[in-house]
Amino acid sequence: MRLVVAAVGRVKDKPLRAAMDEYLGRIRRYVACDEIEIQDGPPAKVGPLLARASAGASVIAMEVGGKALGSEAFAAGVERWGSRGKGVVAFLIGGADGLPPDVSAAADDRWSLSPLTFPHRLARLVLIEQLYRAMTLLRGEPYAH
User: Fold this and answer.
1) Is residue 118 part of an annotated ligand binding site?
2) Domain carrying residue 9
């Protein structure tokens, strides 16, 4: 399995970037995981870049209105989507205005991290942490805080 986190916007905040890098490193002990930052812009520009970043993958659009999943169901979903096709699962996070409608419509599934609205950079950290948690759950390992 390979995971891709494609997100609109750059993370410039050093502590936030450090936390993301910590969890990405932990995920990579289990599976390959790429993070792709896409420059923010109008939907006509962002949409094709997100599509290219997720080409050939099972695509999960991360949206407030998506399916709300607990950590166990999230892990099971990662495993299910990761076992299909090429074994690549791409998680897409939009910018301040969310994902372009055509990108959302083309996704294989839509998940939500919470009914709360998060700044997109914080949502990325929460997603990456949940991907690490999913890896530990799938292997029956205790979660390392």
Assistant:
1) yes
2) 2-138
